[in-house]
Amino acid sequence: MNNYFNLTDTVFEVTEKYPQLIPYFVKKGFTPLNNPIMRKMMGKKISIEKALLSKKLDTEKCEAEMCAVIKTGTINTLTGLKKIDINSAETKDGGKRNIRIEGVLPCPIKIPLLEKFEEFYSEYKTENEEKLKTADYKITYDLRSANLGIDWICEQVKTGKKENLPDILLSAGFELFFDKNLMGRFIEDGTFNCKIEKMNKDFCNADLDLRDDKNNYAIIGAVPAIMIVNTEALNGRKPPETWQDLLKDEFENSVALPFQDLDLFNAVILTVYKIFGDEGVQKLAGACGKFLHPAQMVKGKKESVPAINIAPFFFSKMIKENSALKAVWPKDGAIIAPIFMLVKTENAEITKPFADFFLSEKTGNIFAQSGFFPSTNPNVNNNLSADKKFIWVGWDFLHNNDIGLLLEKLRKDFETAALRK
Fold first, then answer.
1. Predicted pLDDT at 84
2. Which end of the chain has less neighbouring CB within 10 Å, N or C?
């Protein structure tokens, strides 16, 4: 028994009251809670106790850990992560200011990319040893797995002070960078600037151009969303070949979205909305309605197998040769969640070697080969055949809409439509 919550409270209630518990639950394996829609829809239907027991976790131990998280506002002793106190003296070292490189990396490439980055960083320090001794700054980095969320970055952004923001920021998705209440306001005032002149032909062609003509954002790679079809669950239906096919009535209650991957989820609903409008979002919700169930948050039921999973491209590489699962790259293109890099203008000269590293062919090859995340570097071979196209919302759409408000609306519309099914 504690003074904060009861184990009979729902997961939604406790995470709504204490949002610092969301990363805790994610670390324990409840990754869909990163998605606000899934947290609300699933979390309202399952108690804390039942959720923990479903993972065979010690409820007493977890209760104590949760209380510790609530008290301290951090999960460093539990997960190795540390809450950043942006006002603490840790931002100084002998009077030196921090030049910060921060962000999140897709899980499949985090380790190989960090290894290369640390090699580069070590070489940089050796080559610039004398310069760094007398410099009025020190360079620090904090690059985490994307599955743990970006709350720690949002906390810095919400202060409204540009001095609290990293000098290089990496992340996928749209919400953080285009929400006018988050990074959007700092883009408009010129705090960040990054220009890419040459880009890989996979992303710069007659169909699309990922170069930002305003030079605010750099896209260093992309997470493509494709379809993984379970041929044994089609029940005589023809596999969908396009996104429009997927929205047909015959696939109602037959589709699973990557709810645990908020960036890809946002990319899918934004793109569907742009191409097919509100009706498309309604139909997508209807297609996914059956799989918005607490079982998704815990183990999943064998009898509830979706005919189609919308999934990151790299999942297709895990399909066994004789499996009933077949990867379908939509003929109209894989929907992409771009991986963005922002560079703070005032310290761009200092951070240029690091920005160049993230834009380099070496980094691009890690993206393409280790994670199957196509790179925008022009010298990287993404190993994609000519028929593998991409679609995305486009710069005009992003610049002409308040993406934060739009995503909030689309999530509510999606939730309402799904619950009606």
1. 41
2. N
